Target: Methyltransferase type 11
Amino acid sequence: MKIRNPQSRFDLDIKKTDRVLEVGGGHNPHPRSNVVVDKYVDDNTHRSGDIKVLKNQQFMNADGENLPFKDKEFDYVICNHVLEHVENPHSFLKEQFRVAKRGYMETPSLLGEHLYPKKSHKWVLLEVDNKVVMVDKERISFPTSFDFGDLFLEYLPKASIGYKIMERTHPNLHTMRVEWEGSFDFIVNPDDKDILKYFEEPWTREMVLHYFPQRSLGKELAEATRAFTDICRSIIRSKVLKRV
Model:
């Protein structure tokens, strides 16, 4: 079942004694991963750089749809920006659920894919009513003519404190993040019109409020304060590390 929507891939419920697998660590593996697997060793089509393996990490060349591990061999599995690439999401997800007790899944959200689409992404995803919904881009003739990646992925996250606050107060705006135990509910290429409308129609105010429920002023202020505090801590940590 779905446990929660973490703030980021570093906001995970992983114990010190957990054995952690990462599927598709690519050029940016999670530092907590013990074992990292990747399907493509010499092909960077689906990632932004060469494969990187951190100290004390074991790397294996393996297909996420057919993992060479025993049932529940791992306590936790991390899958960060991989699901949108796969050919068979049913097989891929069932393998995650088979080899690990708990896990974390992160992909671009529907909005994120519109802002910075990637040709290597086969699927566009959105969490609707606690279900991860995947729709084949070709099925909905997904537009790819505009790409604002340099603005939303490079410039604003580094130059704008206001944008940094928005990222933290609405973490599922540009990304879809799900932490799960056992498994989570998912739908591939749904026929339900009430679900497809999120992918095919202009969003109404009702749809917006359904996906992003309005918070009280007090809650908004609390979230913004927490976000600003977190940003300040990050800035201080980065300056301290530069001096070391």
